[in-house]
Amino acid sequence: MTPLILGLAGPVLSDEERAFFADVDPAGFILFRRNIEDAAQLRALTDALRAVSGRADVPILIDQEGGRVARMQPPVWPAFPRAEVFDRLYDVAPASAIEAAKANAQAIATMLHEAGINVNCLPLLDVRQPDAHDIIGDRALGAEPLRVAALGRAVLEGMQAAGVVGVVKHIPGHGRAMADSHVELPVVTASAEELESDLAPFIALNGAPMGMTAHVVYTAWDAQECASLSARVIGDVIRGRIGFDGLLMSDDLGMHALSGDFGERAAGVLAAGCDIALHCSGDMAEMRAVAGAVGAIADDARARLDRAMATVAGRGPDIAFADLVAKRDALLAYA
User: Fold this and answer.
1) Is the pTM of this model over 0.85?
2) Comparing 66-70, 132-136, 194-198, which segment has the lowest mean pLDDT?
3) What residue spans define the domains of the chain?
4) Is the pLDDT of residue 34 over 90?
5) Active-site pick, 251, 252, 275, 279
6) Which of 145, 187, 213, 273 might form a disulfide with 228, Cβ 3.0–4.6 angstroms?
7) Which backbone phi and psi does 196 adopt, to 5 degrees?
8) Which EC class does it fall in (predicted)?
9) Is 170 in the active site?
């Protein structure tokens, strides 16, 4: 197995992709809107990915947050609310907000499980900051760290209950970034003391099964490298101060916050301490470059992967989707 999570080009595995994935044996796969047409097609695609990997529990990831980040969309699948609505409800009814966030996450996971998807890149634990770039914005669960942690825990628990692993992101915190890391490299100049509030939700949920790094430079910790490429940030902050010992993947290697060729990017995030390099575009030339730059997955990374997937072994939806949505909507009405 190689320490890669890879995308694919379209809604059906090509012969070239099938042969490449069988040879490279990536740790997992990630899906985007280009891979999704309808329910039958999507289930056939995830079945094909399981077959080519030879693992019934191979991680198949998606970003199904709700709001503006949703790969499975109407009219085939329902829309889900953005995270901000749970923050709003928390203002007036904290316990109801937590229950609503859990029901919503469990509904999302119920839908994903039916499609054969077992990992969702959610929750965001980024603490929203005034005047920051809106790449996080209404995707955040709030501006108060303990609230973000409480709602984030509900999201993790709701998804796990329906058989889907959650990924906390963007560790150690993207909320202060004044730029979109998809487009350029954000540099955060806050002090280590100020950054403690950004770390707080990740510390509270440091037992999460999976996490995703931020392509953000934090000058208080490492003025040269973004977190995904910084052995200091990963070792001292993510693994040390936060105490996170779950499976750690980079954010997408294709984002413009990173420089260098794709092989250098993949080797760089692994050398810094990420367990897995994430490559999303499905471009075959890029994937070949990434695969050529990495060796076999490290023993500790494989152990973390196995532990993460074991958290949902034998689990699946046990509450009807419609009932979960009705519960969520009744609670959100309080806001």
Assistant:
1) yes
2) 132-136
3) 2-333
4) yes
5) 251
6) 213
7) -60, -35
8) hydrolase
9) no
